[in-house]
Design goal:
The chain is mainly alpha-helical. Helices cover about 80% and strands about 0% of the residues. It has a single domain, classed as Alpha Horseshoe (Serine Threonine Protein Phosphatase 5, Tetratricopeptide repeat), CATH 1.25.40.10. The longest helix has about 45 residues.
Amino acid sequence: MDEDVLDEVVPTEDLKKFEGIYNDLISQGKITQKAQFEYAWCLVRSKYRADIRKGLILLEELFHTDKEEGKRDYLYYMAIGNARIKEYSKALQFVRGFLEIEPGNQQVHGLEVVIKKRMERDGFKGMAVTGSVLVGLLGIAGIIMLTKK
């Protein structure tokens, strides 16, 4: 699986289109699972964390209210959304949940690999930043100690 799935950004016109449909149906009290899913699907592919989180909430709501048909899709997109906001442990939980339902799904196995790669990459970046800060602080402490003598 290509890492693009975590970098794909929804076109603004698609997001506005599905947001409009969703809001119209909500205001009429006629929201459908399809409309909620399509809007959530756009939100998890947004470039904004707040949109992604909103999409995740809508997907979780669907997951808990839908009987069976869409559960796989909800798990898949919840994994993608969580990975996009760097909630890798949560993303992997959703991947594992999907694989319990369908263990042979290669697309989801690929997603798992991509998430683990991102987790490693971001983890090492985090350690590098922490190490740089620590070196900087030690340097400052050394300068302070030298100036006190």
